[in-house]
Specification:
With 477 residues, this protein is α+β, with helices and mostly antiparallel strands. The protein has helices at 5-13, 15-26, 38-55, 122-143, 165-171, 173-176, 219-222, 229-238, 261-268, 274-281, 297-303, 342-354, 381-394, 410-416, 443-459, 463-476, and strands spanning 58-63, 71-76, 85-91, 111-113, 116-118, 149-155, 180-184, 195-200, 202-211, 217-218, 306-313, 323-324, 327-336, 362-371, 374-375, 399-403, 422-425, 440-442. It starts with a helix and ends with a helix. The chain binds zinc ion.
């Protein structure tokens, strides 16, 4: 079913108010990280609840265990059992603002400049909340009803790892049961190019502590027969890479699923500019990418594992003395290809780093995270429905993309609400600088995404029939 023009018109007539609501929501510093006031996070939750109530959603509540930033839930299920139920997800918590002096306008006082809105959380993910709420509002105001049943869950601890999400979803499973999950917190490949994310990489983090001496020593009196912990650590880490910096951890890629020719072709057809890839990354003149492999950059980013040292500790330069350093530490971070076994890679890495350490140093390893990636089929009636909605909103055919990051909320949804397919879309574009300073939202894309959301509700109204037909076809084949 296609959304009537008047519903889209209604959303467009109300766009200035919607933007005002986004700005108001972005003025609340709902930083979920420890050390920031939790009262602001709850204030933001209450404001989201107020908006949900105002548009006509029912059973609006703040839920979740005490001491955990609340989940805002709401629903409207009067479309009836013959219509599908969409579970709509977004999050209202934000990252800390970072270095305030690096912001060109205050992080919690959003400002419009050159077609973008600047402020912490505007794109990640308060715009996601507003497009969903405003699409519902346009349907109610124009038609007095929705073409589908909807349930909302708006989270307050996404930026700190969605720690309690899975147990919350399991506890509220009945209440949140749905046929499709729509998660609006991912990125578009380019500004103005609508994108559906169909895979995420996983993550394994291992902290390596090296202890060689029980106290630092004078490097002149002892150096030579006695080594130092910083050398031991860097020599150990160096074994992960060859002289060119390519990862050589044995066995790392053993369980990376091979992409089909069709998938490789689809990746090769996506727009890509090596020059802007270099510039966007801020690669220094003369530096090269680590692309020794034949694979395209997208294949590497989304479908191959990667290893990085994300923390390194010994003695800072300004405290350097002629000393043999007694202990040193680092974090080894592995991004996993979707489909790789996170526990296997964790065990492999731990075994590799604890074998035969330089100078026989004491090595202690702590696993900080082991999260598998996620992948869904790039076909299906849900993807087709989302494609049509995005094409209408943006005036361009959407692309299917992967994501090199590891979004912690996706797997809990798939596990807790087993069977319901997840559609991932969002508003981040390459220059939005989410998590960094001067985070911003492209206002043209906000408009397009809102129109898409209006269409999305309509496109999913025949989902149950489409799904039944699809299963029938599979059954016959
Ligand atoms: Zn986010």
């Amino acid at each position: 079913m296609q959304a009537p023009d008047r519903v889209v018109q209604c959303a467009m007539d109300r766009l200035p108010q919607t933007l005002g609501e986004l700005e108001a929501l972005s003025r609340i510093p709902s930083v979920s990280a420890p050390g920031f006031p939790p009262s602001e996070v709850s204030r933001c939750a209450r404001e989201v609840a107020r908006l949900l109530e105002e548009v006509g959603l029912q059973k609006v509540e703040l839920l979740g265990p005490a001491g955990v930033h609340p989940y805002v839930v709401a629903e409207w299920t009067e479309a009836g059992p013959e219509k599908p139920t969409l579970l709509l997800y977004a999050h209202y918590d934000v990252q800390p603002p970072g270095r305030e002096t690096h912001w060109h306008s205050p992080p919690f006082d959003p400002e419009k400049r050159e077609g973008r809105l600047y402020g912490r959380g505007v794109v990640d993910d308060k715009a996601g909340i507003l497009i969903l709420i405003s699409a519902v509002r346009a349907w109610f105001e124009s038609e007095g009803t929705l073409p589908v049943n909807v349930k909302f869950v708006v989270e307050g601890e996404e930026e700190i790892g969605s720690t309690h999400l899975e147990s919350f979803l399991l506890e509220t499973k009945e209440r949140l049961s749905a046929d499709i999950i729509v998660l609006t917190d991912t990125a578009n490949l380019e500004t103005g190019l609508p994108s559906l994310t169909t895979s995420l990489r996983g993550l394994v983090n291992v902290d390596v502590h090296v202890k060689l001496l029980d106290h630092p020593l004078h490097s002149g009196m002892w150096g030579g027969p006695i080594g130092d912990a910083a050398t031991a650590l860097t020599a150990l880490l160096g074994r992960l890479f060859d002289a060119q910096g390519e990862v050589i951890l044995p066995g790392l890629s053993d369980d990376v699923p091979e992409l089909s020719q069709h998938e490789k072709k689809a990746l090769a057809e996506l727009p890509f500019s090596r020059a802007s890839f270099r510039t966007d990354a801020g690669l220094m003149p003369g530096s090269r990418t680590t692309a020794a492999s034949e694979a395209s950059v997208y294949e590497q980013l989304w479908n191959h594992p990667a290893v990085a040292i994300t923390a390194l500790e010994a003695i800072p330069l300004d405290r350097a003395a002629n000393q043999l350093i007694d202990s040193a530490a680092a974090r080894v971070s592995v991004r996993l290809a979707p489909g790789q076994n996170a526990e296997r890679v964790r065990d492999l890495l731990v075994e590799f780093l604890s074998t035969n350490p330089p100078f026989g140093a004491q090595v202690t390893l702590e696993c900080e995270a082991a999260v598998p990636g996620w992948r869904r089929s790039s076909e299906g009636s849900d993807i087709e429905a989302a494609r049509r909605a995005l094409a209408r909103g943006y005036g361009r055919e959407p692309v299917l993309i992967g994501c090199g990051g590891s979004i912690p909320f996706v797997a809990p949804f798939s596990r807790a609400l087993s069977g319901a397919p997840a559609v991932l879309l969002g508003l981040e574009d390459p220059i939005c600088n989410a998590h960094g300073e001067n985070e911003s939202l492209h206002l043209g894309d906000f408009r397009s995404a809102l129109i898409s959301a209006v269409h999305l509700l309509a496109e999913f109204s025949d989902f149950l029939e489409m799904q039944a037909e699809e299963t029938g076809r599979v059954g016959e084949a």
